[in-house]
Amino acid sequence: MATTGKPIKCKAAICWGPNQPLSIEEIEVAPPKCREVRIKIVATGICRSDDHVMSGAISDMKFPVILGHEAAGIVESVGEGVTDLKPGDKVIPLFVPQCGKCRCCLNPESNLCYKNDIGKYNGVLLDNTSRFTCKGKVIHHFISTSTFTEYTVVDEIAVAKIHKDAPLDKVCLIGCGFSTGYGSAVNTGKVKPGSTCAVFGLGGVGLSVVIGCKVAGASRIIGVDLNNDKFAKAKEFGATECINPKDYKLPIHEVLAQMTNDGVDYAFEVVGNTTVMTSALQSSHFGCGKTVIVGLAPSTAKMTFDPLLILTGRMLVGAVFGGWKSKDDVPKLVCDYINKKFEFDGLITHNLPFDKINEGFELLRKGESIRTVLMF
Ligand code: PAD
Ligand code: ZN
Ligand code: ZN
User: Which residue in 135, 152, 212, 350 has a CA-CA distance of 20 to 30 Å to 178?
Assistant: First the structure.
């Protein structure tokens, strides 16, 4: 390609600091170094986790930063030593990398590769530097991905090659929201056929938990949300009932206990609120109920609960990215999508041109969108 080995000037949305809109700027993207890949982003989704950073809920974030972590694109060029990718390949960036060598990568039960940047937020690639500059300033990367830009550079272990027929404007959701929710049900929860599930929070990730519970054969899937507008879509995706805590005087875990003969088999927290996490735990059945934490709470939040809840046999688990081993599993999820094992197009309620990114965040904050996919 004509751009190989040279810096690329392109548009990106910069987050200069918390509590301000993103600003569309011209940036310079350096060529990929050894074992790195430069990608032209084609479509990127807006996830609540990006909004958490913008709202200041993640206290150790480094600014300025290019956010965005749910996307699909095409390889523009590769650095030295990259053998499994070439220009023109369709790819999905991975916000949980897979190095294949660390303790987590070697453990079949774990997916949180040591090379991840979640919770550390160093904001650089593995060689400890950034490939982005804007107005003479270095701009940080975000959780190994940074997709709110026409071009990004990622480490080889943080990008997966996907099927050449994959529609990028849809499978971008496999980069975060869909896979996280779906995997939370099928991998982390290991939902069994005939079981009863409660899903707290029916956004893009929660609805993907609903899809996972349905594929796993759950017989009851109860959606819980404060916004009744989310219920129609939840039922389309497989929720058998939906309830709004505002409609009851009793605490929601007591309502669920009455509905389910003393509690659900699986409860999923997909809001990011520690009070809801405790409610989910209390809603699960003593002796056998399992609660899965999916939501990302503010960095300073603490969850409190009576340990008797656990002593009496409930399980509390959690995972990022639905427990998937990203580099291995993302290509398979894309093939499962192409082969119609599941369907999630309905999660995309809005498409906007990239320049309207702030409008996309407003739709999410107002509860009007599930997923907005930005197109370049
Ligand atoms: P979203 O904002 O689209 O959905 C959240 C939903 O929760 C909305 O429908 C709200 O109305 C609802 N809600 C808010 N408060 C309550 C409440 N008290 N009780 C019941 N429902 C409530 O977000 P999303 O679906 O994009 O993401 C959900 C969470 O998952 C969020 O915390 C995000 O940061 C986290 C996430 N985690 C991972 C991971 O790897 N674990 C990945 C992606 C997103
Ligand atoms: Zn996300
Ligand atoms: Zn690893």
Answer: 152
